[in-house]
């Protein structure tokens, strides 16, 4: 991937060397290879005992694998595990609310609607906090955390919050996204003084920024009536023989949405998004100490696979993506002792996403979930084709992380406190 911003001005022969090095580093930092490479550097430092905040206990990895397998078999005894995707969260009281929402006869339009819904829903999926609840007006069910955010966003989408055309509410178009206000989002998510939602202002800014991104990238979202669903047409046109590589989807997501992330580092004019600093990630050149994660972008990529496959576009190389550096996967490792805090501040003090403790935790999570996936497959007698990482995350590590959190803490919160701005977790 090359960030569009790096293409704008041609370079002279005299000044070409340094900007080209920066542009190449920026492009590499937006890839799964960079995520894995830098995460592994942090893990290697941990294995050598060189980290400030965590001790890595590889002798406890098998305990974590056993716990994850127990969780998988409890939830999916036939091992028919779906992908880790936002679609799993649209179930309420045994009913798939997405399945009954949109059923146009045109296959491509259904895929566009699915893209419109899932992109907005994923971008609103940052941690809600322990206090927030959502009462589903359809079922009367009270729902928390990711599932609550999912149903709230699905209902908002159904009611046309992201569409500029009341006659066609099932759409997320440029004008609709730009018109979303904090008050409107608060009403949709039932936010009140006694029902606070963490990062509400950040979520609003993110949705508005999404509208600007759709406007700025007509080649991705459509030249006339631009909408998020235009990204489906862009990807479909680039499939070869009805097949896309998962990394092509991530590249399109990062290219199309890269400008929406607030207050982040830039390199060669490229917004690096979910990229942070850690001293263990040493390298010569402009990427020194930079550790990318692109958690929400990868979560979104995983979630776009199913609408593409429903439109008869096969997605290959899912394991080209990485584990998601978030608090369920990372919490599993802390709660089962694979990661052991070196000092009390790790678990007793809240931390911002850019704090070294959080960057270290997230990098170790990405690298160790790769190792854990191997152990889980071995225990279940499955190979990577039968149990790709997307299914390991859904059936095992994410679900197991939530389960152990509920066993250990009232409310089921993570073992490490994170100050959310609504745009990372």
Q: What class, by secondary structure content?
A: mainly alpha
Runs in which pLDDT lies below 50 for 5 or more consecutive residues are 4-18
Q: How many beta-strand runs?
A: 12
Oligomer: single chain
Main pleated sheet: 2 strands, antiparallel
Numbering strands along the chain, what is their spatial order in the largest sheet?
1-12
Mean pLDDT: 91
**What is the helix tally?**
16
Q: Overall 3D geometry?
A: globular
Distance between the termini: 23 Å
β content, as a range?
A: 5-15%
Helix content: 40-55%
Element string (H = helix, E = strand) = HHEHEEHEEHHHHHHEHEEEEHEHEHHH
Question: What is the C-alpha radius of gyration, as a whole number of Å?
Answer: 21 Å
Describe this structure in words.
There is one protein chain. This protein has 425 residues and is mainly alpha-helical. 48% of the residues lie in helices and 7% in strands. The protein has a domain at 85-238. A hairpin with a 2-residue loop joins strand 7 and strand 8 (270-271). Helix 13 (327-335) crosses helix 15. The chain is globular and about 60 Å long. The two termini are 23 Å apart.
Topology of this structure?
Blueprint: H1 17-29, H2 32-47, E1 54-56, H3 61-75, E2 91-92, E3 95-96, H4 107-123, E4 134-135, E5 142-143, H5 145-158, H6 174-178, H7 182-188, H8 200-216, H9 218-221, H10 230-238, E6 243-245, H11 246-257, E7 266-267, E8 270-271, E9 275-277, E10 290-292, H12 295-310, E11 314-316, H13 327-335, E12 339-341, H14 345-348, H15 356-380, H16 389-408
Helix pairs in contact: 2-15, 3-15, 3-16, 4-5, 4-10, 4-12, 11-12, 13-15, 13-16, 15-16
């Amino acid at each position: 991937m090359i960030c569009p911003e790096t293409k704008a001005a041609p370079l002279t022969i005299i000044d070409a060397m340094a900007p080209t090095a920066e542009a190449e580093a920026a492009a590499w930092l937006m890839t799964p290879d960079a995520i894995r490479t830098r995460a592994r550097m942090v893990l290697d430092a941990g294995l050598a005992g060189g980290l400030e905040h965590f001790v890595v206990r590889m002798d406890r990895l098998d305990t974590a694998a056993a716990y994850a397998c127990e969780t998988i078999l409890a939830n999916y005894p036939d091992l028919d595990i779906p992908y880790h995707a936002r679609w799993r969260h649209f179930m309420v009281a045994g009913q798939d609310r997405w399945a009954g929402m949109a059923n146009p006869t045109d296959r491509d339009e259904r895929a566009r609607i699915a893209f419109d819904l899932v992109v907005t829903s994923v971008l609103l999926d940052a941690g809600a906090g322990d206090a927030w609840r959502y009462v589903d007006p359809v079922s009367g069910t009270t729902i928390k955390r990711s599932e609550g955010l999912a149903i709230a966003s699905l209902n908002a989408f159904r009611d046309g919050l992201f569409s500029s055309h009341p006659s066609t509410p099932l759409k997320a178009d440029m004008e609709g996204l730009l018109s979303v206000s904090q008050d409107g989002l608060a009403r949709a998510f039932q936010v009140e003084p006694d029902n606070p939602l963490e990062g509400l202002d950040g979520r609003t800014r993110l949705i508005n920024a999404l509208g600007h991104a759709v406007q700025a990238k007509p080649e991705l979202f459509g030249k006339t009536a631009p909408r998020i669903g235009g990204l489906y047409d862009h990807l479909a046109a680039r499939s070869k023989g009805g097949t896309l590589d998962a990394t092509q989807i991530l590249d399109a997501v990062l290219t199309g949405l890269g400008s929406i992330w607030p207050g982040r580092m830039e390199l060669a004019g490229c917004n690096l998004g979910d990229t942070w600093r850690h001293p263990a990630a040493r390298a010569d050149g402009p990427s020194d100490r930079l550790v990318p994660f692109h958690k929400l972008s990868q979560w979104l990529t995983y979630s776009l696979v199913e609408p593409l496959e429903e439109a008869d576009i096969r997605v290959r190389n899912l394991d080209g993506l990485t584990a998601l550096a978030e608090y369920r996967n990372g919490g599993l490792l802390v709660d089962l002792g694979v990661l052991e805090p070196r000092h009390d501040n790790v678990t007793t003090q809240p931390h911002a996403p850019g704090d070294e403790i959080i960057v270290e935790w997230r990098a170790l999570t990405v690298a160790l979930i790769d190792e854990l996936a191997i152990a889980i497959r071995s225990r279940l007698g499955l190979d990577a084709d039968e149990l790709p990482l997307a299914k390991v995350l859904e059936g095992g590590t994410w679900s197991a992380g939530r389960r152990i959190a509920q066993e250990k803490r009232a409310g089921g919160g993570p073992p490490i406190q994170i100050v959310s701005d609504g745009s990372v977790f």
